[in-house]
Amino acid sequence: MDPKLFLWFTEYQTKDLALSCRVTRTLHSEQTPFQNLAVFETEQFGRMLVLDNVIQTTIMDEFVYHEMITHVALNTHAAPKKVLVIGGGDGGSVREILKHPSIEKVVHCEIDGAVIEASRKYLPEISCALNDPRVEIIVNDGIKHVKNNNSTYDIIIVDSPDPVGPAEGLFCASFYRDVYAALKEDGIFVEQTESPFFNRDLISRLHQDISGTFPLTRLFLANVPTYPGGLWSFTMGSKKYDPLDVDVADLPKMNTRYYSPAIHRTCFVLPPFVKELLK
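The structure assignment produced for this chain is given below.
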């Protein structure tokens, strides 16, 4: 059948690059107080969450992003008990965090409650841990939350959309200083920091801002097919622990599909063009 007869969703990833996916059904669409929210059923990636016409997560490849933004830090910290997730309304980061038996509480702070509700209904594989009794969901601004919670968290994970609109304030030096204050004395912070192909200047600036706040800063990589360029970066700021000092032979076996003890080490091996961004 002629593919032109089908509905296609297109994300314009840059002004010169687009990614199109064939859509079989529109499951949900609404304008929230913060953004346009949609859930599509696609042929290639399964169900897909889209905010302001930008792909946030899909059933096919979500495990890569959610495993990497969580387990690298959780297996670096000596004994994480209390974790804050800012953003990540789909619940995937919460699901991965709760795989660690030391976790006593996860505070999930998402500014747009509609994302949580849509994910509960249409992405149950991802949002399945949101009803766990260890999870406290706060529908509020994560920037305000960290300002009001000094020395509270072992780990803070910023699972945010691109740095535009409501998420823009999550990518600046003043926010990183507040995150530092909200962490305990041995705390760790992780944020998704975009594409090393298409966000080079942003990665350089963020690395400078984070390294100006934390005594140890590490950038690591993972492959997420639906994100621009397919290669995605994460940046860790740590008060004490270095992920490169972890004895990977001692890491516990986990139910993961991308993250592994070997990946824990190799994700920090950066191609020269990425190293250049950190100078």
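Interim note for the steering committee: The chain has two domains: 3-58, 62-278. DSSP finds nine helices and twelve strands in the chain.
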